[in-house]
Amino acid sequence: MSVLCRKTRRMGAGRKLKSHRRRQRWADKSYKKSHLGNEWKKPFAGSSHAKGIVLEKIGIEAKQPNSAIRKCARVQLIKNGKKIAAFVPNDGYLNYIEENVFCNAMCK
């Protein structure tokens, strides 16, 4: 009977049940998201804001069907040295940015 149901049923079955559950948890999307550690591989490493140094001011073209040049700045983050393109909001704000310390919450 125990051959057909494929579940272990006896007293010494704890290790088998535990290891089976550990393997099956990786099929759960929320478990995989929280345990893979991909959040730390991103430039901000889990935080919402980061401080960096402006390397240059750039314009990034918008994707289709829009046509615009988004004002951005190439920024090197202080915490890990990664370089990102940070969007500069509002009209004329790019004029106030020099090659110095720059805080931002959005990255592309």
From TrEMBL:
<dbReference type="GO" id="GO:0006412">
    <property type="term" value="P:translation"/>
</dbReference>
<dbReference type="Pfam" id="PF00164">
    <property type="entry name" value="Ribosom_S12_S23"/>
</dbReference>
<feature type="region of interest" description="Disordered">
    <location>
        <begin position="1"/>
        <end position="32"/>
    </location>
</feature>
<keyword id="KW-0689">Ribosomal protein</keyword>
<protein>
    <recommendedName>
        <fullName>Ribosomal protein S12</fullName>
    </recommendedName>
</protein>
<feature type="compositionally biased region" description="Basic residues">
    <location>
        <begin position="1"/>
        <end position="24"/>
    </location>
</feature>
<keyword id="KW-0687">Ribonucleoprotein</keyword>
<dbReference type="InterPro" id="IPR006032">
    <property type="entry name" value="Ribosomal_uS12"/>
</dbReference>
<dbReference type="GO" id="GO:0005840">
    <property type="term" value="C:ribosome"/>
</dbReference>
<dbReference type="GO" id="GO:1990904">
    <property type="term" value="C:ribonucleoprotein complex"/>
</dbReference>
<comment type="similarity">
    <text>Belongs to the universal ribosomal protein uS12 family.</text>
</comment>
<dbReference type="GO" id="GO:0003735">
    <property type="term" value="F:structural constituent of ribosome"/>
</dbReference>
